[in-house]
Amino acid sequence: MKDLVDIATLHQLNTQRPIKSKRNRWNVEISDFARLTHNPIRAIVEGLNIQPNPDKPLIALSIGDPTTFGNLKPSQETIDAIRKAIDDGNGNGYAPANGHQEAREAVARYVQHQGLVSPSDVILCSGCSSALDLCISVLGRPGKNILVPKPGFSIYRTLAEGFGIECRTYDLLPERDWEADLTQLEKLIDEDTCALIVTNPGNPCGSVFPRSHLEAIVDIAERHFVPIIADEIYEHFVFPGHEFCAVSSLSRKVPVLSCGGLTKRFLVPGWRMGWIIIHDRDDAFKDVRKGLVNLSVRILGSNTIVQRALPAILENTPNDFFDDLVATLHRHAELAYKSIKKIRGLNPVMPGGAMYMMVGIDIDHFPEFETDLSFVEALVHEQSVFCLPGQCFEYPNYFRLVLTVPEEMLMEAVKRLEEFCEQHYKIDNEQLLLQQNGLLTQMTQY
Predict the structure, then answer these.
(1) Structurally, how many domains does the chain consist of?
(2) Which positions carry N6-(pyridoxal phosphate)lysine (predicted)?
(3) Which of 114, 183, 314, 402 has the largest CB neighbor count within 10 A?
(4) Which of 238, 239, 221 is nearest to 230 (CA)?
């Protein structure tokens, strides 16, 4: 009875309290984090008028998913490993936030080329994008800035700007096979610079930095005490004549967070398995290590079935599988480069690895198009070939094409590209005068 009286008294007191809320309608606001987060590529592509020619099947050279067309498939060993993990039934529950011990041990063995790595240095993530997200989240905060390459992968900006972190871009130089402008890079650094992102091999350029260039980048980071986030998801996609060198293997004093995963090399991007390798130097990352574990708890870890299969995937997939994949991409790169180089008005840059190629547009010779955006729109409308415009990577008057499509489809796309350019290419007055003078000279010789 006393309990009922107490409840009644409590209810009476609550009803007598003044109501602080003045709400009289729904007004659900989103967070600053959500408002500031955006995908530049999506924003640009959604603004394009993409209307393919109905008489020609669409060839999408825009999709960075190597599995899209079905010509590139994961190895049988990879499939067998995941089937066994499902049959064993030990991957149905949660794992520790940073990943199962056995899986982290397997990754530590797999990445020994980066330097001495122990399982405690490995954080398993939901894909390489998640790894990058954790790295930027643990190092950055409002008012800080990170250095990112231009042209570069747009997700860096997507992940940073939601936190109020400024992205400062350092230039990659096409005339130097997309090496970084080191002088400009160093001038961007100030007291609020919290990280330098190095993408190697590169997206969208397909660049592979030589060892000496990476050493110069590491030296700059060391002079200014700036940690490095190494996006190395394409670390084994390197063409003949080039050599991949892990940033962490060159660093004596600079702490490095290396991001990788199964996504591209093993042709399973949808399985969402990535990792961070913590390369600490002199305990500079003592708090960062704890912070990464804290952040991992937010999603309670990555896919546990794939974690259980990870040791077999990493250890049993034969080198022949990887060699054949790289050989295919290299062949496609050479075919595309040699063919596009012959097209008036286009300037391809031969990649050293990854699965992309950047192509420059001599926009002055295409007066119908003001920018790479209108060039790409017309290319889709007339020839049903879609490439991502350079502005998606903050690099106007270029476009990016992917090299993972079937060979016959790639060559058909290049053929249509040549037809499109020949139709729209215009010679400027100076060139026309030179040609006319040359013709007159020839006529006077007869």
Answers:
(1) 2
(2) 264
(3) 402
(4) 221
Is there a domain that residue 220 lies in?
A: yes
Residues 6 or more apart in contact with residue 143 via CB below 8 angstroms: 164, 192
Structure tokens given for 104: 């982290």
Q: Is 23 a member of any domain? A: no
Alpha helix ranges (H) inside 59-190: 76-88, 101-110, 127-139, 155-161, 182-187
Does a structural domain hold residue 309? yes
Run of H or E residues at 376: helix 372-383
Amino acid at residue number 26: W
Note whether 306 and 385 are within 8 A (CB): no
CATH number, domain of 423, equals: 3.90.1150.10
pLDDT tens, position by position, 180-227: 999 999 999 999 999 999 999 999 999 999 999 999 999 999 999 999
**CA quadruple 425, 358, 342, 332: dihedral positive or negative?**
negative
| Res 440: pLDDT | 47
DSSP state of 228: E
Give the domain CATH number at 89. Answer: 3.40.640.10
Other beta carbons less than 10 A from residue 252's beta carbon: 8
Reply yes or no on whether the pLDDT at 4 is more than 60: no
